[in-house]
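Batch job 17 of 40 flagged for manual review because the log was empty.
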Amino acid sequence: MKIHILLSLLLVTGQLMAQSSFKRNKSLFEAGFGAVYASIPHYPGSSQTNTLFVPFPTVIYRGDTYRIDEDGGARTRFFYSDKMEINLSIGGSLPVSTKDSKIRQGMPKLDTIGEVGPGFIYHFFNKRNAKGFRLSLNIPVRLAISSDLKYTKERGIVFNPLLYGFYDLNESFALIGALSAYWATKKYNSYLYDVAPQYVTPIRSAYDSKSGYVVSNLSLALLHTRGDLSIFAGSILNDASKSANKNSPLFEQKINWSHAIGFTYFFYEYL
């Protein structure tokens, strides 16, 4: 689930990947590779986790219109200034196999979900003048679409405001913190928490999901940068205690933790 590419595999790979460039020149394009080892809950309220080792390419592109950087991942900017931007952003979540989830056994798997929609980013300090500490707010509203590469299906709308900051401890170490909340329409929540009559068992009653609050995430990570190499480690507290669907039989646990450790290495830079 999307605990998530903005605040597990995004914060701890995407945003940290880009954060490694704060000690670098602000070049137009950078490329490299990295890997992350992470433990992530299947979805908000799940008692089980996915343990993943993921190698990945790293790309930073600081074009005027198309951009992949520390401020919001991959996006298209329609309007921007030193303190704000309006963009088209993307997000996503990982698949969950019913073989790996005891409570969902016999039910359809949760496919990979891609998200796309408009977003607004506001920097509380002018980025050109900010030194040592940066604080920003990212407010995206996205359409969710699930896919297993054979079919796609629209899954509703998600709203995921994210407050994030970077604090440089010294020339080599930085702290990254983030706080996010997550709301979704009934169609999206139904994909996670519904139990149709044909999937009822003695331990799994029928359930019809509601729209509303899904989860909040509080994240903290430490980044060490030495030249082109960055090493990072982070944890995310996932709090779904106020979930609109905590009465679903698929909702097992109010509080979860995610953890990740990894590295990025940049080998190419184009000014």
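Reviewer: the log was empty due to a logging misconfiguration, but the result itself is present. Confidence is low (pLDDT under 50) at residues 1-24. Unflagging and moving on to job 18.
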